[in-house]
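Cross-check.
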Amino acid sequence: MNANLEKLENNLFKLSVEIDAEVASQEYNKACKKMGENLSIPGFRKGKTPRPIVEKHLGSDRIKQKALDAILPGIFADIISEHQLDLVAEPVIESYDFELGKPVSLTAKIEVKPEVNLPAYKGQSIEVAEYKIPEDAIEKELDSIKNRFAGMEQVIDRSTESSDIVFIDFNGKINGESIKGGSGKNHQLDLADSHFIPGFAEQLAGRNIGDEFTIKVTFPEDYTEKAIAGKEAEFTVKINEIKKKTLPELNDEFAQKLGPFQTVEDLKNDLAKYIEQSRENENRVRSEKAIIDKIVEETKLDIPDTMINREAKYLMEEVENRFKSQGMSWEQVIEQQGHENIWSNLREEAAKRVKTSLVLGAIAKQENITLTDEDFAAKVKELAGVYNTEENKIYEQMTQNPSLAQSLSQQIMSQKIINYLLENNEVKYIEDNSQ
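Predicted model, tokenized:
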């Protein structure tokens, strides 16, 4: 075999290969025999079909492709190892000339990861806005718990208040045109915790049962449905029913219903531990993000469009599947938001992801950070505990779906690199003015 590797622009290489005629013929014969074993041709026993009949039935091009599939992985592996290439994807065959009895000539395109010029990623001092627990955090948690167990009591002798729950009919229009999905019958709306358009719930306070009225609201500029984002809408509303929340009394009996608590004080202590753990987790997340953002931002890197487009396509498939799983029409989403707008946003996200991945990969290579069997086993054990299942069941799932194992491996590696960065950089907490 003769091979020649030629560097093209950016991160592309052209590989020219000449495969010995004898090697190609041997693999062709093996492929022909193997493929013929699965043929059922009238007049011939299965697996005993003569080669000319197999070739006529399957076509020699198909057999040649099968032979190349057997030959090329080894050739590519040798080339990659010899030249220490860090591939982005599998080599792409551009052309080949395969004539039996003659050497096979083939050209392939190899895309490698671009060179990453890392900045100083150790010994840095990085400022992070510290998350602190609000003084009323426990009280808010207790209020939230009581609201989850709240009952409802009918109201008939007064108008609506901002803490009420109302049942309404509503119909929305923009410039006289009905809004798709903008109407409902006897819809339950919590005026104190409304997820409707800003300003909608506020205009329902001070109304009486049976009242029919019109209100005006403006959709946010960043509303998901771009066709109506930023536009003023008019809603006709009818109040059918008013109910008020009845909150349970916070006492020892109520605490005992929530879990292994004997007193309200036990419940509060448990909440305090939960809140403290949440604070630690939040500050850890903020620290990780700050370190990664700083290093990625300072890294000089020219990312090829092919890598960004490949990741953006993957993200597009993710978004499409997510909408479909929610029972939404992807075609309708495209129509409302525009394909170009969606693609542009996803390309921005893809570029960030690709750059971050390349930077973390370069640090791992520089510091010889690798994934060990022990790392993988520890993660599987952790997952088994989280999902209350047996470790062998998780391994069985990964055997059935290899992409799960690959995804898990990537998560473990990413966390090992991030842990390394946290250990080798100083985090300085500063006041978070947004709190």
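The domain at 264-431 is CATH 1.10.3120.10 (Trigger factor, domain 2). Residues 337 and 434 are 31 Å apart (CA to CA). Passed to J.P. for a second look.
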